[in-house]
Amino acid sequence: MELGVFSVFVGASVLVFLGGVEVGFSQSEAYARNYISWADLKVDEPKVGLNSRNEFVNGSRVIVVDKNGGGDSLTVQGAVDMVPEQNTDRVKIYILPGIYREKVLVPISKPYISFIGNQNQTSDTVITWNNKASDKDVTGYELGTYRTASVAIEADYFCATGITFENSVVAVPGGYGMQAVALRVAGDKAMFYRVKVLGTQDTLLDETGSHYFYRSHIQGSVDFIFGRSKSLYQYLIGKSLGSFQSSVSYCHFDDIITPSGWSDWNHPERQKTVEFGEYHCRGRGAAERRGRVPWLKSFSFEEIRPFLDTKFIYGEQWLRL
Predict the structure, then answer these.
(1) Which residues form a coiled coil (predicted)?
(2) How many C-beta atoms surround the C-beta of residue 156 within 10 A?
(3) Phi and psi of 106, rounded to 5°?
(4) What domains does the chain contain, in order, with CATH numbers?
(5) Distance between CA atoms of 115 and 16, rounded to whole angstroms?
(6) Looking at the annotation, which residues are catalytic?
(7) Are 119 and 194 within 8 A, CB to CB?
(8) Would the CA dihedral through 37, 227, 182, 154 be positive or negative?
(9) Beta-bridge partners for 57
(10) List of residues 6+ apart from 81 with CB closer than 8 A
(11) What is the pLDDT of residue 221?
């Protein structure tokens, strides 16, 4: 289903899906290290020498990943490992097309990293793994949801474009230990532009920090977007593979959504701290309101307005788009 605005309030945490509001930052502003700009999401492909390790192109360090051996690293994690600890400058990891079957961690000690694929062919560059929560580690303990992520971003000022993040586990809704995260984002000030995040249960763990998802695609069946972050989702396609989704939304609902629309997961006390609401929703799943849960809130424009641009995520402090 194509989503407009989608918000989840958990304590002080809010997620917002937004449609129809353009970003207003000037591209003419000087590049600053503590901002993410369009330049951080681009590489000058003709200038990238595929056999020249750690080449600088237009002032930025570029590390090339090619599974066929033509770059600086065969793996994405190998490229991340090449970035120095406590990095202070933008490093662009340019990932050539291919399926990269690996778990990737961008640790908190390595900020200012970009993952760059082909913005026009997002499906060409895939990072995929297949852990689920009931899998066991080398000590015999179950991984749990948190450790299943195919790609985990713990560093600040991360950005990505033209990449598919995937967890290939096919989860049966309600099955034990089937949580399988494709992407976990725990760093602050992260941007994702033209990416895909694919899974079934617990696809995107938008854990903590302020994040911006723009013109992207997130797919799953149960809890496929969850977490405690403060995030803005603009021009997003969120595709539910099942019949249930819980969120606060301003969006297009397909009729795959159950009439009740929302759930407190059999914990009525959560109704006191979590606010579910809708504003100008569209689609066959939004037309029938009589079956909605009685504690659903309908927002007025004045109530929804604070969430309708990048000021909500303090974008003026870290975005230059």
Answers:
(1) none
(2) 19
(3) -100, 100
(4) 2-320 (2.160.20.10)
(5) 24
(6) 223
(7) yes
(8) positive
(9) 60
(10) none
(11) 83
133: Cβ–Cβ under 8 A, 6 or more apart, which residues? Answer: 142, 143, 144, 145, 148, 177, 178, 179, 180
As given in the structure block, the two tokens for residue 143 are: 């991984």
Task: Write phi, then psi, for 82 (nearest 5 degrees).
Answer: -75, -15
- Based on its alpha-carbon atoms, the radius of gyration of the chain, rounded to whole angstroms, reads 20
Which range has the top average pLDDT, 201-210, 268-277, 298-307? 201-210
pLDDT greater than 80 at residue 12: no
- Residue 250, pLDDT score: 64
